[in-house]
Each structure stands twice: as C-alpha cells, then as structure tokens.
C-alpha cells in the first residue's frame, strides 16, 4: 500500500475562435499552435506510455469550446493548411541553414515535428483528435472532465441561477455527445466558486470539482486534513484542492522548472527574427509578423543575448527536473502520511497549454515524471479523483469558501475597472433569455432555431476569456469586439423573436458563424 497519492490535472481550454467570414484570421492560430505544440505531444506521450505498458493515471479537462473546435470541419481544414505552410517553411529553413552546425539540426528538428503532427492529425486520426483522447480514456488511463460550456465565470452569474445551470448542463451534454458518457467531474471555469454552485453540478450528474487551496482551507468548518484530502459539500459533491507546493515548482516565474537556462526560449521566433520578405508567405495575411513555431534559441539568461537551443541539453534537464519533482513528492507525502495518519492526496493542477506551447519540454518532463514514478519509487501512486474517492469514500462535510485561482484568489481579475461594463449587460441578457424560455416553452421551425441561436450567443458572450484578455491588456480590441458582437446578436435575436420579426437569411448567417453546440436546447434556461 503506498503512503499517499499524486494526481495530475491538466486544464485544456481555448475560447471558441472560428471566423469563416475571413479566409485567414490571426486569433485562430491559438488553436493551431495548441494542437501542434500541446495536444498532439500529449497524445504521443499517452501512446508511448500505453505502448510500454507503463501504469499511469491522469485527469484532463477538455472544455466544450475546445471540443467544438476540434470537431469543426472548417477548422480542421484550416489546421491542415497551417501545417502545410509550416512544412514549406521547414523546407526553406533546412535549405537556408545548410552547413550551419548550430541551426541546421534545429531546422531538421522542426521539420520532423511538423511532419509528425501532419501524420498524426491526417493519417492516424483522420482529423479527429477527440477520438485520440477518448481512446486513452476508454483504456482506463485518463479521466476526462468538463468545464463551463463557454468557460463563463460562474460567481459573477450568481444573481441569474439559470445562467449557471445552462453553462453546466450544456457542457455536460456536449461532453456526453463527443466523449460517449456524462462527465463525472468538472474544472470550474477559472476555478471560480461561490457556495451553491455544487447544487447545479449535482443536478447535471457531476460528482466532484476542483478549487484552489484557499477555497478548501477557508471552508466552514475548517478541513481536518487541509488541502490534502477531498471534502464533500452538504449535497455530497466532492471538492479537491490544488496543492500550492507542486504549483510553485512548475508555475513560478522565478523558481519554476520552465525558466531554466537550457530550455527553449518561447519569445525568439523566426517570424520576428528573419528577413520580412523571407517569412512573409508564412505570417499573417495583414502583413503583420507572427509566431511561426521555429524557435532556435534557449533561455540562456535574463538579458537579450541568447545562445542556440540544444534539444539534447534540454532533455537532460527535463529528466533531471522530473527526478527532482518525484523526490520532492516522496518527501512531501512521507511527511504528510506521518502527520495525517492516512494516505494524503497531492493534487497538481496546471493549464495543459503550459506543456508544449509555453514550455516546449513540458510533455517530455511529464512523461519522465510518470515513468520514474512508476518504477523508481514506492512512496506514492498516481491516481484520479474518482479512484481516490473509491478508496476513501468517507470525507469530511464542509462548505467551501468563495474563491478562484486568479489574482488575489477571488473575482478581481475578471471584474475590475477595465471590465466592469461587461457584467450588467451579461446579467440582463441572461434574464432576457430566461424570459424567452418561459414565453416559448414549445417552439418549432424558424422560431426554434432563433431561440437556440440566442442561447449560443449568450453563452459565447459569457466567456471569461474576454474579460481575462482585456485585463491582461493583450488582444483587447478583439476581446471587446467579441463581447459586444455576441451581445448584439443576442439582442437582435431577442427582439426578432418577441416581435416575430426577423430575417431568416440573417439567422442562417449567424448560425453559420457561431455553430457550436449543434444539439443545444434553449429550454435549458427554464
């Protein structure tokens, strides 16, 4: 019997970014980059572990917006176009760096990466990456959980409970449609919680969720085992808390592994470094430079001077850091077991896109951790939340504290002086959607389509990503436009439905633009 358990939880999420009205759209690159740099490398990692019969368990959220993009034929076709452009650039780079002992091997390295991505996406999975994750789930290694339908920040919907219910129920139905079963767990968007949300989860058949550590540590009554064991809400929905120690080791900008000098530098990219005319065919159609994925330098140090990237050095560091992580978990769990008198659970929660996209070596590091944990120690085992609950079904009952995993641990990153204008509109629209559902308990034909599309537009306007981007001061214009556009479409549909006065051609246009959740039922707002 192990002295304790370690559970990795990866949160794979992107906002719904799909623009058929444009031949190319820069923000769609978020999706293409994540496929190449995170999702396919994780699939390869899972396949390698299964091939080598390594015992492992891991939990991963695949959010409904991400699943919707993965199944979309237009985005699948555009991703292939993106890969083909990357392969063309790889060929050019292999030729350009011929004879350069430092950069030619890197050009070949990236050429191989893009070829493997093309083979995996097109040939092995016929564009259906959902099936790849589902295969690992059905083999018993991966617990796939859901999220809010569009990653809406639930605490700021508290005055409109039907909006919370819709976010959760639409998510659960989408998960079931694409993954074959209702989700057992949920990663609450931004880990945002306020007491009472667990009731909506139970109604949707969801039995556990995750919070940042202070959400459980500040529970009423206080948890006997801190954040090293799940607790249950009064309705018996279980709560798992993030472990801050493992988060710091990986997330910390100053102390985390990804900042090591031998790891690849994310920000140095040939899309910005090389001659404009040379890279122009592979950057934005607007002519703006952008990331291409060809990054030839390592972090090196804090200054501007960067040394060439050495993948073999980086792999050595990834193995070293994996060993360090495992050693620390052994000591942590030994200590906790001695003081708790039971087997603790250390929950390591991360954004999935950290692994590969931001931290190129992340998937290899995770692979090393899993393999070392299986064969090089006997203090802990990898597990998933449902497995842990099966072993230890008797949990302390408590009411978690309102919390999030954002800045200062509450709502400030999403509700602030830059974003406060959003929420009166979202709450008013949610109330209007509830009134529509009550006024039209039965609908058919064009009215039914309009009601369902109004529900889609409200959900899209609620995405927490837009407020996050505005606060972060990155793609502010785009985030503001998305918020306003979806609210405008919702209002136009609302007035058209109420007045029985809308153009079917206009409805069809909006349905084509925002086509996620094809089986949505507006009555979820009743």
From TrEMBL:
It holds the Pfam family BE_C. The active site is at residues 190, 351. Keywords: Carbohydrate metabolism. Substrate binds at residues 242, 259, 405, 465. Residues 7-393 form the Glycoside hydrolase family 57 N-terminal domain. SUPFAM superfamilies: Families 57/38 glycoside transferase middle domain, Glycoside hydrolase/deacetylase. Residues 425-525 form the 1,4-alpha-glucan branching enzyme C-terminal domain. One of its GO terms (molecular function) is 1,4-alpha-glucan branching enzyme activity. GO terms for cellular component: extracellular region. Gene3D superfamilies: Families 57/38 glycoside transferase, middle domain, Glycoside hydrolase 38, N terminal domain. One of its GO terms (biological process) is alpha-glucan biosynthetic process. Belongs to the glycosyl hydrolase 57 family. This is DUF1957 domain-containing protein.
